[in-house]
User: What shape does this take?
Amino acid sequence: MSVNTAEILSFDEAMEKYDPVLGFEVHVELNTRTKMFSSAPNAFGDTPNTNVTPVDLGLPGVLPVINRIAVESSIKIGLALGCKIAEKCYFARKNYFYPDTPKNFQTSQYEDPIAYDGSIDIELADGTVFTVEIERAHMEEDAGKLTHMGGATGRIQGAEFSLVDYNRAGVPLVEIVTKPIVGVGSRAPELAKAYVAAIREIVKNLGVSDARMERGNVRCDANVSLKPKGQEKFGTRTETKNVNSLRAVEHAVRYEIQRHAAVLDSGTAIIQETRHWHEDTRSTTSGRPKSDADDYRYFPEPDLVPVVTNEAWIEKLRSELPEPPAERRKRLQQDWGYSDAEFRDVVNAGVMTSIEDTIAAGIKPATARKWWMGEISRRAKVADVEPAELGVTPELIVELQGLIESGKINDKLSRDVLDGVLAGEGTPTEVVEKRGLAVVSDDGALLEAIDGALAAQPDVADKIRGGKVQAVGAIVGGVMKATRGQADAGRVRELILERLGVQG
Amino acid sequence: MPEINREDVAHLARLAHIDMSTEELDRMAGELAVIVDSIKTVSEAAGDDVPATSHPIPLSNVYREDVVGETLTNEEALSGAPDNADGRFKVPAILDGE
Assistant: This one.
């Protein structure tokens, strides 16, 4: 039976009484050109049932053949997760009857995964590092896509029939399974999100997956159980299936913790079952309990021969690994001289690579950070896009900065210039001309404005003449106002003091 | 005590989505038990030093290069399907799966 979704405990209360234990199974779709066991294209969004061969349809008499690149990508994922790579491993048949697999089994790995016993360090938003142990990463194939028709909601409940597209059937998958994650406490939802984000980042950085969660390239099943504080033995877990955005992973874990706590508080036992996540209500509902259907009767796949690795092959693949994201961050922070807080803000704002490119184009680290964390981030927030998607290039920043440093424009004007460039009015130099934004550098025009400002504030002028040089700010302000900001404040100050015959 | 009893057969039949009558279950339990007991003699012949063998021929690492080959057309793919709609296989709504 499903638990009433209203029956949840507050998160704080749940955390006072219970310790959560988490576990994740993340499925990563590889971006090989072809499928795991057939030469059909591995492509998204094509006409249904066109990227299929007899192998993908499970027609009689067909024989699968393993995709070499898929094996190599799997080994790379294993290496990036700090895993040992199996010397010899096998494929196995996982038998179940459901129309998403036309063969009536999924080709997977059972007792011998290609990679096992790894760990990754997950950094939370405040810099806390949490190590997650990896149990295994194994190779398998994706299933076809079912669309349930005739029901009111498009869900299986109430559907009259289903339509099946086998384009996705046989797409190479790597399933990454963690060991139970204990001791994370109230940071469990945050860790869940950070873990999936880290896996996504790693496989994307390796170039082995497109890692687009909205396309299902990275999918997460989240296991949650609670144990009363101080108890060693794990509680009964539930597995929330297919939580497919980072935000949803965080919310689903949080919700299940609250729901488990309420069930346990009421003296009822948690039922070991799968749960379905609903983004609209941000809650889970009961899927199906553990049953006969989970008896998959695995046995070795007789049509595929074992995968045997050797030192030379593994070392060759290891040498092809890019710098791990965590090490890259460490290196960049050191190179740029940012404080921990500054660097974390940069990472969280998603502008690290943009800053790297900007610095490579010749901008000083501090200046690059000022641009990306300041004006560009601000505009991105207003436009509700990622900063990198605004269309600001390193070359554009180099040109803007050049205009500032040569005294053509000042900081304030540079914002208007940026607006003009982003509005498609041309290059920064062109915008300066078209909008008439150049700093007023004609001393004659400035002196005219200075005389006006002095006349408007005679008392301030007297103070300055009397030696209170710091009062000059009020006159500078007046001049900036009169020139609509298009003056170089430093030059204005010099001219005012000169005019009044006072030493700066 | 045979390795396979009536409950095992009923369980397997359920997993395999095969309807079996009481008589069929009784008969099959007896027949399967004989087969399983016969095959058990293999375990007696193989000592602890003989590893479990899933493939009789000692082959490994048979791979395909990651190159797109010929595919079926949509019509060909659906040609053997009992029913189809919108270019896809049409199947009854089934609830007891993943």
Summary: Chain B has a mean pLDDT of 87.
